[in-house]
Write a structure and sequence with these properties.
The protein is mostly helical and about 210 residues long. It has two domains: about 150 residues, CBS-domain, CATH 3.10.580; about 50 residues. The protein has nine helices and five strands, in the order H-E-E-H-H-H-H-E-H-E-E-H-H-H.
């Protein structure tokens, strides 16, 4: 199985000029962890993850901060009253926050290579591109987990017959048989002992009556 067999080909993307709020709305609406940024020819320009909205210095969540600034009365009446830095934040676009150091996969890559990317690069999702770096799909960590779930594995192939399984099964039956025999013997012994006590008690009772 290759990446092309697992990826989602109908990908929701954003353009570089999309606002911070628009990108945040897409992430929240579709419960995405990230969204690709593409140009008009669907060439991949970058990826925006949820964590890219967190400022490095003040740990602010940019979409919330932008909305807060825009809701201020004096900003609604005249944005020029804001500082240049604040205006940059309000007017920030996808191009300003996207990560252009992109980890990508090819449609023909193996599942092993994909799993290695997820494990070593710590990114999610991973865009799938062609030779021209055009976006052809996207694959997430959850897609890979579903592929290797126990249900999917059992549905796609029969469990191998291993020597250890056969040995364990044989040992189980031998132990089970042994305990069944032991339990039966013990039950028989206890039954005979009970009968013996009953007979002895009866004899002693008869002798006691004769004596009196």
């Amino acid at each position: 199985m290759k990446v092309k067999d697992l990826m989602t080909s109908k990908v929701i993307t954003v353009r570089p000029n999309a606002t911070i709020e628009q990108v945040a709305d897409i992430l929240h609406q579709y419960h995405f962890t990230g969204v690709p940024v593409v140009d008009d020819q669907t060439r991949l320009l970058g990826v925006i993850m949820e964590r890219d909205f967190i400022t490095a210095d003040s740990k602010l969540y940019l979409p919330t901060y932008v909305k807060m600034l825009k809701d201020l009365d004096f900003v609604q009446s005249d944005k020029k009253q804001l500082s240049k830095e604040a205006q940059k934040v309000i007017n920030a676009t996808a191009a300003d926050v996207m990560n252009n150091n992109i980890v990508t996969a090819k449609a023909g890559d193996s599942m092993e290579h994909l799993a290695e990317l997820f494990a070593t690069k710590r990114v999610n999702p991973i865009p799938v591109v062609d030779e021209s770096f055009k976006l052809v799909g996207v694959v997430s960590r959850s897609d890979l987990i579903k592929l290797f779930s126990s249900k999917n594995i059992s549905a796609n192939r029969e469990a191998p017959v291993r020597v250890v399984d056969l040995t364990a099964e044989k040992a189980y039956h031998e132990i089970d048989k042994h305990f069944a025999i032991v339990s039966k013997v013990r039950a028989t012994i206890w039954f005979l002992i009970s009968v013996a006590f009953l007979v002895i008690g009866f004899i002693l009772g008869v002798l006691w009556v004769i004596d009196y």
